[in-house]
Amino acid sequence: MNSQKTTTTKLIKLTPYYTQQHGQAYLGNSLEIISSITDNSINLIITSPPFALTRKKEYGNESSDKYIEWFLPFAYEFKRVLAENGSFVLDLGGAYLPGNPVRSIYQYELLIKLCKEVGFFLAQEFYHYNPARLPTPAEWVTIRRVRVKDAVNTVWWLSKTPHPKANNRKVLKPYSQSMEKLLKNGYKAKIRPSGHDISDKFQKDNQGAIPPNLIELANTESNSAYLRRCKAAGIKPHPARFPQGFAEFFIKFLTDEGDLVLDPFAGSNTTGFVAETLQRRWISLEINEDYVLGSRYRFSE
User: Fold this and answer.
1) Which of 41, 50, 87, 91 is catalytic?
2) Which of 56, 171, 189, 210 lies 20 to 30 angstroms, CA to CA, from 280?
3) How far apart (Å, rounded) are the C-alpha atoms in residues 251 and 31?
4) Annotated active-site residue in 30, 49, 64, 243
């Protein structure tokens, strides 16, 4: 057996639902399974849990007024199992208050609790922008026309210490055409109208541009191998899958090959699939057996 696989399996004294070369998927209550994981053993927790929405969804979300109370027990376990230089990336969608065109502030209340009570540090906030999202909520956007469509999730990058492992050289973006031209033709050092001093170091080729904290990914999956295989097997796919590029960005940015990645609300196991592809060890946890069963098709030949 692969030594990395053996090390990962020993962290949880349960039988995995299925196993791949670098990781395992488990079926069950995440809070109960996490309690068996060794302290300081996880390098990255990345997850998109059920959001606090006005209306109940089939994947089991809590209302915004109960969400923090529901989430905090998980948060304490996340902090316990996270390595000292590890990171916890939490993708959260927003919600409107029932019957009113005003927003819940549950994400911000949760963030304060995570930092002030649980003891996480906010390393940086990100925004996950989906330009293809439909114009919702319909009541306020398309019917009464008093709001614009919701197209951004807040993403909290949290850590146990102020200095988690991270390297933005791993997630550089291709240079723009104007920057490519500047690198080719050179740039005369000068002070910009804003007063910012652009030195001749500005024209150094760093093999790419540093990405912003706005992650633009259209979640338009409609004919992937995962969906086709679920359909052929008569299994209903997870209705709220996040794009592979989201997991890929943070796994590359915050981990090295061989590190251990955990998704405690794995759904269709996008995180595990990307971690497997990037040669990171991984553990995925999911309470819904249909979703775990369907997630196997991400790895099928």
Assistant:
1) 91
2) 210
3) 23
4) 49
Per the annotation, the verdict on 39 as an active-site residue is no
- Which domain covers residue 261, as residue numbers? 3-172+211-235+242-298
Residues 189 and 249 in one domain: no
16: helix, coil or strand? coil
Closest CA to 1 of 9, 274, 260, 275: 9
- 224 is annotated as an active-site residue: no
Our answer to whether residue 49 is catalytic in this structure is yes
Say whether both 224 and 256 belong to one domain: yes
57-66, 109-118, 179-188: range with lowest mean pLDDT? 57-66
Give the whole-angstrom CA distance, residue 161 versus residue 154: 21
Check which CATH number belongs to the domain holding 282 and give it: 3.40.50.150
Q: Find the catalytic residue in 48, 87, 159, 268.
A: 48
Considering the domain architecture, whether residues 185 and 166 belong to the same structural domain is answered as no
Residue 301, pLDDT > 80, answer: no
Output the pTM of the full model: 0.85
pLDDT tens, position by position, 198-255: 555 555 666 688 999 999 998 766 667 788 887 877 877 776 777 899 999 999 999 9
Q: Both 26 and 118 in a single domain?
A: yes
Rounded Cα–Cα distance for residues 170 and 115 (Å): 27
